[in-house]
Each structure stands twice: as C-alpha cells, then as structure tokens.
Amino acid sequence: MNTNFLEQVLPPAHVPLSEFQALISLLDDTDETVCRAVRQKLKSYGGSIVPCLRNIWATGQATKDEHILHSLVLVIQSFQQDALLELLEMVKESGDTGKDIDLETAVILLSRFGYPETEPATMKQQLDAIALRIHALFMKAPVHNELNLLLSINQAFFEEEAFYGAEDKEYHDPDNSYLFTLLHGKRGIPISLCAVYLLVAERTGVSLQGVGMPAHFIVYHPELDIFIDTFNKGAFLSRDDCKRFIQGAGFTYETSMLGRVSNVAILLRMIRNLVFAYTKRGNNWEIAALQEISTAIVEMMNQEDS
Question: Are 271 and 163 members of one domain?
Fold first, then answer.
C-alpha cells in the first residue's frame, strides 16, 4: 500500500499516530486473520475513529483496493450494528418493565447508527446550552407564565439557534434525521425537529407531547392546548387547524390522530423515515439493517398489546 496519504489523516488524540498508521498499512493484507485483528483493534478506539476511516476512503486510496474498502466498511458497520442492538435492547427492556423508552437515549443511539462518532455527552451539552438560553430569555419576560415560557422556547429554538425545516430538494437526506448532524446544521424534517424540541423543552420544565398526524409530526402543549409546528418555525396551531391539514392531505379526520404518541412510536417513525431516505439513495446495507430493527420493534409492540 502507498502510505503517503496517511499524512493527510490524523487519528483522534487518544490514538497513537504511529500505531494507527501501522494498522492502516496492514489493511491490504490478504491474510483474513491479520485483517480481522486490525479491524478489532481499530474498533477498540471507539466511534471517534470513524471520521478517520471515512477520510481514508475519501483520499481515494481505499477505492483502489476493494480489500481495503471492505475492511473499512466492516469496521464502520460494526459500530452501526452495535447502536441498533442497543436500541433494540432498550425497547425490549421498556416492554419488560411497562415503561416507555427514554427519547433522548433513543435519538442518540439512532444518531450513532448514521454517525458512530456521536458522543452522548456532547449532544447533551448542546441541548443543555439551548435550554440555558431559553431560561435567560424567560427571565427577561414581563410575566412568568406558561405562554411566555413557550414563546421563549420558540425564540431560542427558531430565531437564535435557527432550526428550520429541510427544503424540498434536500428533504430526504438521511442527515435530516440524525441528532449529530441536526444539532450542527440545524436542518431537519418534522419528526426530528420535534424530537429535539421535546428534549429542549423538557430541560426547561415544560411537559410536551409528540403528535404523529398523518404525513406530518407536531408537538402538543396540554396545559395551553396549543399545537406547535416545529417544521414551520414553531407556528401555533389549533385543533381546527390540524383537522384542516389532515383533510387537506387527503385523510379522513379522526380525533385519535391528534393524540399523544409514545417515544417508541417516535423512534419507529424516525427509523421508517430513514429507510425511505436510504432507499432514495440506494444504500442497501442501511436499508436492510434499519428494516430489520423496525420489524423487531413492531413485533415487540404487538406482543405488548396482545
């Protein structure tokens, strides 16, 4: 292997450079025992190594040797598979205990499927920072009530942090569903924006509910009886507004369509959105992996209902 390209790829600070370079230089070894040992060692560095592996891929060196490419893909996919297995175990435990899953843990694990370098502590710090900004805005409000707190959430979320709905041409990009990229780019689809909104609101002491309308996902504030459309910059909606939207989308309105959905249901809908997004791109491995966990979650939910 021509190792000159390794000068362009630096591993995370906790990974010795010489050790990393030595491992990468062995990726084209035809001995599967050697390759397996290299892959295991690379994985032991944790998900933060994945951007480095992507960079090696991007240099073009990997594409010159299918054996190298195969090893890189296997390491990355092993991280992705671990994230899905943790998700599945969490859903199973929730079914055993009769409690809903923790939404924050779920969206972080799902983010680790798309981006194994997702660090839970970093994600939490970013969410905490938004919540602190909301608190600062609320303290300046002339009256401290639920409506002004909600207005403070919207101001911080949509005006200052500038979260917004993905445009048509980029709507089906998988990045719009992952917490890692959403907190960075501030662009998402309805359900992913709602998930982040729910997590931030929870930090401010506001108890909101996810509402899975047909073809759209929104948030509900029970105390104020207000629906919030996070895809449209936090627009407030009434029940009649929601009913008109549902009917305009070609569905027969039922009151249950505005009911609270569980966190498991939110996770399942996010996974299905990702399946569709990856289908548009032809990413067969991701499609199969996500469909498998989706089927397993549905089976668990059906067992709970039976």
Answer: yes
